[in-house]
Amino acid sequence: MARDHLLPRRRLLAAMPVLLATPALAPAALAQAPAWPDRPVRMVVPFAAGGATDVSARLVTQKLSEVLGQPVVIENRPGAGGTTGTDYVAKSAPDGYTFIMASLSTVGLALGLYGKLPYDPVKDLAPVAPSVLAPIGICVRRELGVSTLQEFIALLKANPGKYSYGSAGNGASGHISVVAFLQKTGTQAVHVPYRGSGPVFNDLLAGVVDFTADVPGLMKPHVESGALKALVMATDQRSSVLPQVPTSAEAGLPGYRAYSWFGVFAPAGTPKPIIGRMAAGMETALADPAVARRLDQEMGLPPMRGYTPEKFGAFLKEEIDYWVPLVKASGARAD
């Protein structure tokens, strides 16, 4: 079963189209756009402030505001693993002034975690553009006294159910990443869901929980201070943000993969010209050298460029087809 949770290298590479950027996308779409926006645009983030979705969204929307000529205002609506905010946007008026920076967990994994999700990601949301790929790693608090992934696995095996891990919410990518890790290693730990990654790291540093799975950019300051120990990046290549942290294979757990991605969606029925302009704006923002550098080199979140709304929609369906059966087979539930 553990193998079913793994992401083959070809899928990971396919999810990183940064090298397939299409510069012609932005000018054409901008030229055909209607007189929109004529007032501030709301970008809902379905997690608490301080997490990877929130921080990356704030970075991108700063540039996006310049491109669109109107403020793009972040509004945090956390709860239920991100599904509360996602449902809010799915039921919002399709007038082009409400969007969401969703994640793989809220528009993909959630379909396998909830018996009755209040929205259909494919029918109730219109794909606009992806933002970034989010590789995931595991870090523990220093007081556990482990220096390697194998030492941590041995500690978990010797103390079934003693240690706890925090995640951004039931069904969040970090949650599923740890579920896959526990199943692959035959270990047990207690899940403590939060309303975003920011609160998770606060409690991890305070010793309330013992470990978490998240993106390297959020781990970096605490790893560098010595408060946390990063044990593995669940990828094929080391992170440029935490180059000292071994990959899964290097850490003795070959094949263990974990990732997420973030992307912009609108309520279904939003006029296509508006979706096209927003997609073009996202492409321009992600192509900005300063934005791309901060996302990739400082946060470890490679921009996902070169997507039309149609291509992004096809990508979403592929992700749903791949992940939902695996999530259901894992037995993980969020309701």
From TrEMBL:
Domain of life: Bacteria
UniProt xrefs under PROSITE patterns: TAT
Cleaved signal peptide residues: 1-26
SUPFAM superfamilies (UniProt xref): Periplasmic binding protein-like II
Entry keyword set: Signal
Record has Signal as a keyword: yes
Annotated InterPro entries: BUG (IPR005064), Bug_dom1 (IPR042100), TAT_signal (IPR006311)
Family: Belongs to the UPF0065 (bug) family.
Matching PANTHER family: BLR1237 PROTEIN (PTHR42928:SF5), TRICARBOXYLATE-BINDING PROTEIN (PTHR42928)
Protein name: Transcriptional initiation protein Tat
Organism: Teichococcus aestuarii
